[in-house]
Amino acid sequence: MAAEERMPLVEKRGTVVQRDCTAYSGTRCRFCELGTYVNQLNGLSHCFPCTTCDTGHGLFVKRNCTPKTDTVCDVLNGYHCKDLIDSNGCSLAEKHSQCAAGQRIKEPGTSRSDTVCEDCQPGFFSRDGVNCTAWKICSNRQIKVKGSSTSDVVCGRTSSQHYFVFLPFLLCSVAFTSLVTG
């Protein structure tokens, strides 16, 4: 056994050099402590600190850190990854964009892409930036306020239409008064 103990140890994933080899003994390794890792063959004397997934910045732990692998973070609902680490993890997340009034959501955000917004087409409006709704249909004489991309058409009688309603009545009253007094 004494001969086997003198054989050099091969540094491996999850370990670092505790003591370098000498003429009389082989390299002595130690395992990475909790919260640290080494994911490759190495000659290092210290393990790397495990990555922290910050929920305040839209990340959560997908896979915990081990002595041989770093933490893998992924994104919370409502966020998308801005810095993808291979196909498994994310190191930086950002909240999905909100569409503005006058726009609609063309494509909802996912964990890997932001929300895609699109302007409402003419004749449609959106107050909340979610969906576009068609303007109400009014006759030309009923349009009180024109619609926009952020507000609907307002239908109703305009003030000029009141004169057209009362004008025939007024003319009849004047004619009748002229006949009676005349």
Could you explain the architecture of this structure?
With about 180 residues, this protein is α+β, with helices and mostly antiparallel strands. Among the domains are: about 1-50, Tumor Necrosis Factor Receptor, subunit A, domain 2 (Ribbon), CATH 2.10.50; about 50-95, Tumor Necrosis Factor Receptor, subunit A, domain 2. The protein is about 15% helix and about 30% strand. The chain has 2 helices and 14 strands; from the N terminus they run H-E-E-E-E-E-E-E-E-E-E-E-E-E-E-H. Strands 1-2 form a two-stranded antiparallel ribbon. A hairpin with an 8-residue loop joins strand 1 and strand 2 (about 30). The protein is rod-shaped. The protein starts with a helix and ends with a helix. Mean pLDDT is about 80; it is low at about 1-10 and about 160-165.
Tell me the β content. Answer: 25-35%
What is the number of beta strands?
14
Name the helix and strand elements from N-terminus to C-terminus, one letter apiece: HEEEEEEEEEEEEEEH
Widest sheet: strand order? 1-2
Query: Which CATH class of the domain at 1-49 is shown?
Result: Mainly Beta
Largest sheet entry:
2 strands, antiparallel
- Looking at CATH, which topology of the domain at 1-49 would you report? Tumor Necrosis Factor Receptor, subunit A, domain 2
Mean residue pLDDT = 81
Assigned CATH architecture of the domain at 1-49: Ribbon
Name the CATH superfamily assignment of the domain at 1-49. Answer: Tumor Necrosis Factor Receptor, subunit A, domain 2
